[in-house]
Amino acid sequence: MPGSPFARAVCVTLEEKAAAYDIVPVAPGTMKQKPHLNRHPFGRVPVLEHDGFMLYETQAILRYVDRVLPSPRLTPDDPKAAARMDQLMNVSDWYLFQGVANVIAFQRIVGPRIMGLTPNEAVIAEAMPRAHTVITELSRLLGTQDFLAGSAVSLADLHIAPQLDFLAMTPEWPALTAQADNIVAWLGRMTARPSLAATTWEKIAGRAATHNTTRLPKDG
């Protein structure tokens, strides 16, 4: 679904691998219905289909892609760096998205753009302390490194960049990063990568529009 940072993370990873892939859209309002529930029983995106193998959950998909397409390798060889990558990916799912991006980015961008909603300023204000905690911790873990898990890009960078790229579009971003210049610089490096440039909301939407949803697997 265009606008999903999780779906974008998968597309970004496939772009980093120079892989050929199709984007097949799930129509808004149909994620909790069949046939999509046959692919993802919890009614979310993304879902990967590869050689008849169906897989959901973004972290699982990213690790699978890194195993079946081993070059360039996106998981650090060093056990400590790999553990840091895993930690950061969980921070993204549990603390960056939950209660922060799914509130602020939804209120500022997704809701108005897709559903015509007006941002709820009180809800955004309530999420800001959590957002500050997350950005402060990401900044601490990044430190002076070029990338989140070390000197080379990893799945952690590709998983988190779509979330922060959304937040960077909101008026809350300058306040959130006032003490996190390294995160601003890191995001600049990430969005300058061809993989991020090729997977903006508009470009994913354009590719999805070329595919009819009838191409999706049928019930049964």
Tell me about this structure.
This protein has 220 residues and is mostly helical. The protein folds into two domains: 5-73 and 198-215, Glutaredoxin (3-Layer(aba) Sandwich), CATH 3.40.30.10; 79-197, Up-down Bundle (Glutathione S-transferase Yfyf (Class Pi), Chain A, domain 2), CATH 1.20.1050. It has ten helices and two strands. It has helices spanning 5-16, 36-39, 58-68, 79-115, 121-142, 155-167, 173-176, 181-191, 194-197, 201-209, and strands at 47-50, 53-56. Strands 1-2 form a two-stranded antiparallel sheet. α1 (5-16) packs parallel to α3 (58-68) and α4 (79-115) packs parallel to α6. Residues 213-220 have low confidence and may be disordered.
Could you give the topology of this structure?
Layout: H1 5-16, H2 36-39, E1 47-50, E2 53-56, H3 58-68, H4 79-115, H5 121-142, H6 155-167, H7 173-176, H8 181-191, H9 194-197, H10 201-209
Antiparallel strand pairs: 1-2
Helix pairs in contact: 1-3, 1-6, 4-5, 4-6
Strand order within the widest beta sheet: 1-2
Largest sheet features: 2 strands, antiparallel
What is the helical fraction, as a range of percent?
Answer: 55-70%
Order of helices and strands: HHEEHHHHHHHH
Please state the CA-atom Rg, rounded to the nearest Å.
17 Å
- In CATH, what is the class of the largest domain? Mainly Alpha
The CATH topology of the largest domain turns out to be Glutathione S-transferase Yfyf (Class Pi), Chain A, domain 2
For the residues shown, what is the average pLDDT? 93
The class by helix and strand makeup works out as mainly alpha
% residues in beta strands: under 5%
